């Protein structure tokens, strides 16, 4: 959901990589449905394993509870977002998680976007 929001809300101006330390076999159908309610289609997404190379190539690394399993490189900006896990939950339970992710993505975009003077 975070990657989808970042892609859409940045209008493609931010290169987004999405991966997990222990990705599921498929994207959570409740997350797909919750995002579809906002007009964002994640149905074609495939979970990917987080690689050291992906972290090396990133300026900002957002983690969601991967702890020591995530590669760490000095000088990178890291944020660990503590959120409820949507796995195994229905759409009604995923909506507040989705909405919290959207707020955090909007804040992230604002922090990455230069302020016009």
Structure commentary:
By secondary structure, this protein is mostly helical. Helices cover 38% and strands 7% of the residues. It is built from four helices and two strands. A two-stranded parallel ribbon has the order 1-2. α1 packs across α4 and α2 crosses α4 (91-112). The chain is globular. The N and C termini lie far apart (32 Å). The mean pLDDT is 89.
Outline:
The protein has helices at residues 2-9, 29-36, 52-57, 91-112, and strands spanning 60-63, 77-80. It is mainly alpha-helical.
Annotation keywords:
two-stranded parallel ribbon, single chain, mainly alpha, 2 strands, 117 residues
Low-confidence stretches: none
Order of strands in the sheet with most strands: 1-2
Mean pLDDT: 89
Question: Helix content range of the residues, please?
Answer: 25-40%
Q: Strand share of the residues? A: 5-15%
**Class by SSE composition:** mainly alpha
Return the string of H and E elements: HHHEEH
Oligomer status? single chain
Secondary structure: elements and pairs:
Layout: H1 2-9, H2 29-36, H3 52-57, E1 60-63, E2 77-80, H4 91-112
Parallel strand pairs: 1-2
